[in-house]
Amino acid sequence: MRHIAIVGSGPAGYYSAEAAQKKFGEDVCVDILDRLPVPFGLIRTGVAPDHQSIKAVSRRYEKTNTGDNVRFVGNVTVGEDVSVAELQQLYDAVILATGAPLDRALDIPGSDLPGVIGSAAFVGWYNGHPDFKDLDPPLDARSVAIIGNGNVALDVARILAKTENELVGSDIVGHALEGLKHSRVERITFLGRRGPHQIAMTPKELGELGHLERARPVVEADDFPDIGDDAMLEPGMRKSVTHLRNFQILAADAQHKPIEIAFDFFAMPVEIQGDGRVERLIVEKTELDKDLRSIATGERYELDCQMVISCIGYRTPPIEGVPYEHGRGRFPNSDGRILPGLYCVGWAKRGPSGTIGTNKPDGFGVVEMIAEDIGENSRKTGRQGLDSLLVKRGVETVTFRDWKKIEEAEISRARAGSPREKFTDIADMIAARKA
Fold this sequence. Notes:
This protein has 15 helices and 17 strands. By secondary structure, it is of the alpha/beta class.
């Protein structure tokens, strides 16, 4: 019997567990550890609440838990309740699938002012992550600046701009829905260092902005290169740029919509100013060099705003005893191998890039590596040894069966039209599994 521990129950973790099942059959015992009492990581607390079709991938992960050889072990913090070194003593292989849940720092003056929020925090707030339930973003802001030109920036803007009616059917948590109902936001501005041809927003998500009930996207015609240059773009990018061009053309027909979502291209934030809270953003214009890198022009202007949401990327948290690349915010690895017996997958391996599905080849690849490394015979105690250790330390673990009870309670709490009302407090999650 081979014993594998996976740290993190998001997509990368579950794809790795699925790969282990398919590779080793019944000759493997997999424990998926998570610090929260609930599984699925990014699917639960990262994917936008109005994108329920994407969240449905969790049904695939549930199937992985139907066999006795894969187990969810929730409410266990690796690095505190049990160390990576101890896991390595207990298991033949330890896979770090911790994702990248921390915001990349916005390293400009004024970034510590009240009203400056990282996207991990803001997304966690409206998705019900226990770490961010008390965030209290300043929704009295008339103008919001969103730094970044990727899909997370789109999610943030869309949630800010949607009406309560448009959020029916989503699983946005109650405290966020209530706060957004009283929002005073009138203008949302995306800031990106480069231009429309370098945008990182994908076509489907970008196209949604053109169908919002009370918000209209605005793009300046002067920001576009010659339309003939669009032909040189790859198809997905070309579709995104077509959306942007259509926004620019159709803006006049949407003047009746009260919220403006503006695209400010060739714009580099250099300083956030305000007396006790955010009041303005100092922006420097950029241009592209021959390698399409943005360079500062020296020309600056002020952008009035009362909240700044930074969507510039994420980083993996370091874990004691594990090598860490501070510059790249991930674990150093060679195709997923960190050290003998220690591996990583997903964003912990690659950094924050790729889609949910990108994690699948990571998981299957690292399991092939593990098969080569550990052979067929094991003298490790695995699950039995972990349980004994956690009992001695008084750690109250949560099983997948417990999670299903928590889920049932969340479904029973749901408002009309919503699939669930998430618990945002860990103690409430623990209590629900005992009810």
